[in-house]
Amino acid sequence: MSSTEQGTSSAAPAEPTTAPESAAAPEVPESFYYVHGKDKVVHKVSAGALQHSALIHGMISNLGYTEEQAKANPFPFENIDGDILQMVVDWCNQHKGKPTPPEDTNLPKQKEKLFDLVLAVNYLEIKELLTYCCKQVAMMVKGKSPEEIREIWMIPTDAEDEAAEKEAKKRAGKEAAGETAAAAGDAK
Amino acid sequence: MPFPILHTPFVVLSEIINILEPNEIVTASFCSKNMRRLLKNHYQRRKPLEWKLIMIDYAYCGQIDIETSEDDDRITVIAEQPYRFERTTLESKIAFNTEFLELYFEDHEMGIKMIVEYVTDLFNIGVYGLDIDRNGVWAIDWISEWQEKMLARFEFYKNSEIRWNGDATIDYVLRNARASDYYNVEDVVSNTFQFDGKLGPMKQLYIPSEGQWVTLNNLINFNANHIVVRDSRLSVPGLYAFIRHWSAGGSPQLTFLKLEFEDVTDFENFEEQLEVVETDVVGDYRLRDRDQDYHFDNGCSIQRNDGVKAVIEFDIFHFVMMVFL
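Structure tokens for the assembled complex are given below, as produced in the milestone run.
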């Protein structure tokens, strides 16, 4: 369970609070790490939960952090929105030390966040969660016609692609002309 | 809520494409030229080698099916429909039936060729099998010219709407259609129909009905491991002759032969005609190259001159011979 879920989130990275773990505490104390997203809210996550992320797991193995150092230096993921990071942390906690089922009912339900979630999960290299997300994206077009797929997946029409290409060429031409003019100016 | 798929990283896009079924891929490829190019590039990099593409021209309709796994489940990815049933003046029309696209063409053959070319190009795979009836015979020559690789599977079906004899067509099919793994021929022929050509090599030859035309010479000339003929009119002396041919080393590729007789057939004095090694063979025997057993209730074994054994079982309705190489 992340600290934010326990109502102990903090905008300051130095003061994260530990969430109470289940009654049957492990004999060997579990190590915890800290991550924050764009909103700077720090989430305390166990090493077991973080195993899902190949990126974070690699960082931990390479850096050889102690828990104290980890507390003082949360992993910053400035490219991930706070609510998305929360979803990811929740998912990692829910699946900590468990074999991942073929179908996941614990996936975040907010479809409008799916794109950002996919980007975050891909960045954090959480393979199983990425597969679930991709399944959800694939399911969106089941039984749909090309026109419907185009809308759902925001695929531009040929005409829109052509117009965009023309526009890009025009822009590139202008930029090239601008550079030439600037170079000529410099030469004078 | 829309999902901007084209803005996802390459790895994610590849993963999504891998999850989609082939019919969904084909439908998505009709979204735009750019989408089609992207999907095509995906399959250029990752050729779906295990997929089997089947071209179908049956009952005046064309269709492309793909088998994605070993369980032989087929997914129709696109179909061609005759345009004349449509009351529109448009040159061609596209419809979607919740599973796959249906394209309407005035020229039936051209329509099927187009959908085959489209799907094979998209997935970067060739045609694995051809399923046709009498109206689809044109596809035999087209396929053999169009792709170098021999078909693995060929199925020629009887069209229930065509009741007249198809002697000339069947003769043409048997002489020209080739397949390496599975060959199925079924159509109505006259009582005088004869085929004097050769078939094979192939793994399996299946004549599910109307097999009256299969003679002793045909059986000797069929180069197949596994042969099943239904409605056979092969005589008992003919069968004895075939067994002697096999005993002398003929048809060495044969592992299984099953004939189901059109009429009641009496195998009188069988043991006197052939040298039976063992009688009362009972049990399940595994068919070679297949995950299936054949059960013998009352078989007897014979031996080839080189020592190879075969179990034979017969009654008034059928004859089975299984070779143990």
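Residues 1-22 of chain A have pLDDT under 50 and may be disordered. The first strand of chain A starts at residue 32 and ends at 36. Further analysis is deferred to the final report.
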